[in-house]
Design brief:
This protein has two domains: 1-185; 189-288, no CATH class. It has 15 helices and no strands. The protein has helices spanning 2-10, 12-23, 29-43, 45-66, 70-88, 91-112, 114-136, 148-178, 182-188, 194-209, 215-221, 223-240, 244-256, 258-274, 276-282. The chain starts with a helix and ends in a 6-residue tail after the last helix.
Length: 288
């Protein structure tokens, strides 16, 4: 897919064509968002803002006529994260900004998209009703339909994750064209500060324990810890000489098993205190 990045960087009109066409589709909105992030990272904030100014029109039209603002949220979220990364040159700070993006999207959905949230709630209610009918026969606890605030938090979380993935794709494109291998080195070196890691974890726990449907919002606060934990896994894989199959198996387990997700969060917390990458090196984890 690097050829897409190369095409977009050749002129602003080619970048606009790619971005505008992509964000006009619910299926390929992520591609347009990644192009905008790439232009922002490589050519500057003003170039990215010019692109957003025009690409936001088809994205907004799509949101208006379909009721789905995912492409619009990805476009604006990715541009915001790319701007912060370009200004600060700090991935940890960009991850904090990712939380802010998710919170803003979630609040916007809760305040201005009640119809869409009600439709999602109705769909979940039907799905969970059939699942609960099956579970009741097995003596399992019934699944509860999330309330409007929880659904808004989920939408904010999905938007934050999507915006971050678009940014990382753009950064990968940039490194592939101008600094091969740089993105991998940058990601594997990602490490949160002690105060930030502890603060995010404690705030997430407190928010999750608060009654009123804030569990999905609490998950949003754990996003930087998840990313930092995955960076540790990638660093270990590289230093231990593990292959891509090992990483693939790990990601399957991470997606399917909740205990693995918790382990990754704890791994990021431990790494913030003890610098696990240095310990990997000291124990001879680097492949020959």
């Amino acid at each position: 897919m690097v050829f897409i990045a190369d095409y977009a960087l050749q002129s602003r009109w080619r970048a606009l064509l790619l971005a505008a066409v992509s964000v006009s589709s619910l299926l390929f909105g992520w591609l347009g968002a990644a192009v905008v992030a790439l232009i922002t990272l490589r050519k500057g904030i003003s170039s990215g803002a010019w692109l957003v100014m025009w690409a936001v029109l088809p994205a907004a039209a799509l949101a208006y006529y379909t009721g789905d603002a995912s492409s619009l949220c990805l476009l604006l979220g990715s541009f915001t994260l790319a701007t912060i990364l370009r200004v600060t040159v700090s991935l940890p700070l960009t991850l904090i900004a990712c939380i802010a993006v998710g919170v803003l999207v979630g609040l916007a959905m809760h305040l201005f998209a009640q119809t869409q949230i009600a439709a999602i709630s109705a769909g979940l209610e039907q799905t969970l009703a059939s699942l609960n009918a099956q579970l009741s026969g097995q003596g399992n606890q019934a699944l509860v339909v999330p309330n409007a605030l929880q659904i808004a938090g989920m939408l904010g979380l999905f938007s934050a994750i999507g915006s971050l993935l678009c940014l990382l794709l753009a950064r990968f494109w940039q490194a592939s064209l101008f600094n091969p291998g740089g993105f991998g080195d940058e990601f594997r070196a990602l490490r949160l500060s002690r105060g930030l890691a502890v603060g995010l974890l404690l705030t997430s726990v407190l928010l999750g324990a608060w009654q009123g449907g804030f569990s999905s919002w609490a998950m949003l606060l754990l996003l930087p810890l998840h990313v930092a934990g995955l960076a540790v896994v990638h660093a270990y894989t590289r230093q231990a000489g593990r292959g891509g199959v090992w990483l693939l198996a790990f990601y399957v387990l991470w997606l399917l098993l909740e205990p693995v997700k918790l382990l990754i969060v704890l791994l990021a917390l431990v790494d913030s205190w003890f610098d696990l990458r240095q310990r990997f090196k000291n124990t001879g984890g680097i492949a020959s």
